Amino acid sequence: MSDSENGSKRALRSDAQRNHLRILAAARTELAEHGPAIRLEDVARRAEVGLATLYRRFAGRQELVRAVFDQYFTEEVEPLLHEAAADSDAWRGLTRGLTGSLATVVRNESLLLAVRESGVDMANVVPRFLGPLGEVLRRAQADGTVRPDLVERDLTAFVVMVLAAAGSGAAERATGAAEGWRRYLALLFDGTRAGAGEDLPCAPVDGGC
Predict the structure, then answer these.
(1) Do 54 and 66 have their domain in common?
(2) Which of 33, 62, 64, 118 lies 20 to 30 Å from 55, alpha-carbon distance?
(3) Are 105 and 185 in contact (CB under 8 A)?
(4) Mean per-residue pLDDT over the chain, rounded
């Protein structure tokens, strides 16, 4: 193969990658501006690509939403989780990791709604979330700052509860603050402290959450 042919192929791959990233960025903007019910035609128009180009990259709305969420989780959530796991103070790492993760998810509520409404399979996200936080949870239990009967799956329940309070508007109505969900997360954190109350009932089962 000639140098010119190799160069042409590299240029095509580069163009395809640029289009891919432009489509993802356009989809994020559409979600932020218009909510979860985005139209692929609008995404293509904003990305300045043809609809056929979009469909070559993504078979449909579900595939696009999955790709947008994966990029978001990789770039905005996972760094917070790994930073938490690396913190020398396990309690600080655990609370900062959960607080930071929830803050960015609350800001991107439309994306989360789109994931739910599109039926995107989130099973692969759970180990990516629980892996780093589970590590720091075990360290916090080992140093005696977190109650010993807390398990990894409880952390996903924390997220679900706080997002329910934030997404329904209940936290803001109760506190009068846009970030009122932080109050209820603080209450949950208090319940995770070593010596906080009686033993917990009903331990989560494998496959839950």
Answers:
(1) no
(2) 33
(3) no
(4) 89
